[in-house]
Every structure is written in C-alpha cells, then in structure tokens.
What does this fold into?
Amino acid sequence: MDLNSDLGESYGAWRMGDDAAMLAVVTSANVACGFHAGDPAGILKTLRDAAKLGVSVGAHVGYPDMVGFGRRNMDPSSAELVADVIYQIGALQGLAAAAGTTVRYVKPHGALYNTIAHDRRQADDVITAILAVDPSLVLMGLAGTPILQWAQERGLATAAEAFADRAYHADGTLVSRREKGAVLHDPEAVAQRMLRLVETGTLESIDGKTVRLQADSICVHGDSPGAVAMAQRVRQRLVEAGVPLAAFALARSH
It folds into this structure.
C-alpha cells in the first residue's frame, strides 16, 4: 500500500504542516505547485528532502486560489484550465530536476480534485493537460469515481485514493467538510479503519453502512492538527500487520 500526503504548502512566513516529519512517514508526496499554496523556496526544500528519503513525488495542481487555499469552486474555460495544469506540472518538474528527483504522478487539489471526480468537461481538461506534458504520468483520483475510468479510456494510468481521516457516505463519496463528523481525529480508530480497508476493501460509512473501496493509495492529510501522529499510527498499524508499504508510481515504473 502507498501512503501519501499533501506537502510543500507553506508560503513565506505562513507555515502549513510539518513536511520533514511527514516525509519520514509517507511513500508519496503530493507537492504544491504555487497556485493554491507553496512558495518556490519551500517547494524546492520539500522536493530535496523527498529525494533524500526516496519518497515519490507528484504534482499537486489546483485552481489559482491562494486566499481560499484552492478549496473554492471555480469555472475556468477549457483553455485556461489546460494551460494552468500544464504550467503547474512544468514548474514542479523544473524544481524537481534541480532537487534530483522526478515528478511521477499528478494529484489535483481541493475543489479541483472534487470537481473533476464527476465533471466530465473539467476532467477532460486536466487529462488533456497531463497527456500534453508527459503521458507516462499517473493520475491520482478519488476511488470509485468516474474520473479514473475517463483517464484510463484516454490512455492514462491511474491510482485510486482513499482518505484516512475523512468520513464517507454510503455511496463512497466524501462527507463535506462543512458537515459534522466529516474529519476524523482519533489516530487509533483511523489506523484500524485503514487496516480494514487494506485487508477487506471496505470501510464503514458515516451512517454505519459498509462501503466497498478499491484503493491504491491512502492519503494522510498534513495540514490538520495531530496530522503527523495520525500518519505515524496508520503507518505503524499497517507495518505491524505485515502490509508492505511502497510508492505506487515507483512500483509501476519498474
């Protein structure tokens, strides 16, 4: 199983998460590209640290929304969205090359991630952008949503993602952050929940029903309180159960 986290999101004096600590836990790092968060110097440091630890790197592309941290819905034209995604991947590729590593996948961020899970037009724009830059890049998307099939139909490899600290509805969609109980905070409960997912392919929904999910990667958020402790417990629980941990993108490249 792969463990991923959203990193490189600090901006100048504003610190977001603990990248160094998270990089010691995860196998893949979704690194901000400057549109929703991240300044070049901070992004470069995160990439260098990832390279030293052998952590796989992905482009965490988003809407141009620094104030809203990329979590506000936007409706860019296709020309804008394609160019924005190409721009972000290209920027991270340049920084990654300087850091001695390579961008291997793309994981859209926030509102863009949630929109393209079901919105065919914006999904196609993101897929078009990735194909234009490097068709060997893997697209990471929400497990059980149409974006994964749409990408595969156009020749992109995909990785299905589950969220360790987010509640699910019975249909496999995420509970909105605006709703009570959307974000889980108990490291032990979250770790056991992720072990169940790996072993059985199922989770319990917010209303107690069984949700079946096929996941290639588990996201442990890096910007929430107690994120590092939660990520460490998830990793520890999986290792104790004998679950091999490896970057999905690196495994596919060999």
